[in-house]
Amino acid sequence: MPVKTIDVVAALIERNGELLLARRDASSDQAGLWEFPGGKVEAGESQQAALVRELQEEMGITATVEEFVATSELQQPQRLIRLHGWRVSGFSGVIRLQCHSEIRWVSPADVMSFELAPADIPLIDQYLKRFSG
Q1: Mean pLDDT (whole number) for 38-49
Q2: First CA to last CA distance, the chain
Q3: How far is residue 71's CA from residue 122's CA, in Å, rounded to a whole number?
Q4: What is the largest CA-CA distance in the chain?
Q5: What whole-number distance in Å separates Cα of residue 129 and Cα of residue 83?
Q6: What is the separation of C-alpha 114 from the centre of its chain, rounded to a whole number of angstroms?
Q7: Phi and psi at residue 75, in whole multiples of 5°?
Q8: What rounded mean pLDDT belongs to the chain?
Q9: Of 52, 58, 36, 38, nearest to 118 (Cα)?
Q10: How confident is the model over 59-81, as pLDDT tens digits?
Q11: Which residues does 110 contact at the CB level (< 8 Å), separation at least 6?
Q12: Is the four-CA dihedral 103, 17, 117, 74 of positive or negative sign?
């Protein structure tokens, strides 16, 4: 039986030299872990469009999606999750939490000191190589 592949997008949202981390709430998969916010790509949707929609739904913001950062893969028993990270240079609106318990603005160098969801780790690695310093 082929493993189901799920494409997910994540936003590395920048503001004043910091990145936004969001903590997954108690009801979600990987509860309590920190992640870059985002969500599933729907059929026929571009990654950028999915990210704008997800950030609107999850946080009430309208994002400016810049360039692609990296893709990481997380193999789970029933599915393969492909996480595509995108740099978001700004947004309009005020963040309202729907599926996260808290958010933090963190310097990119400090992101790894948080307990990150496993698929997000390669994204910050690539981000640091390409956009920091």
Answers
A1: 96
A2: 45
A3: 8
A4: 47
A5: 18
A6: 14
A7: -85, 120
A8: 93
A9: 36
A10: 999 999 999 999 999 888 889 99
A11: none
A12: positive
Token digits for 118? Answer: 């496993």
Contact 37, 69 (CB under 8 A): no
Total residue length of the chain:
133
Q: How many helices (H) and strands (E) does the chain have?
A: 2, 7
What are the pLDDT digits (tens) for 6-31?
999 999 999 999 999 999 888 877 78
Contact call for residues 112 and 72 (beta carbons, < 8 A): no
State both tokens at 31.
């509860």
**Total-model pTM:** 0.91
20, 34, 23: which is closest to 101 by C-alpha?
A: 23
Which contacts of 95-98 are long-range, i.e. CB under 8 A and separated by 24 or more positions? 95/59, 95/60, 95/61, 96/59, 96/60, 97/22, 97/59, 98/57, 98/58, 98/59, 98/60
Structure tokens, 8: 């997910």
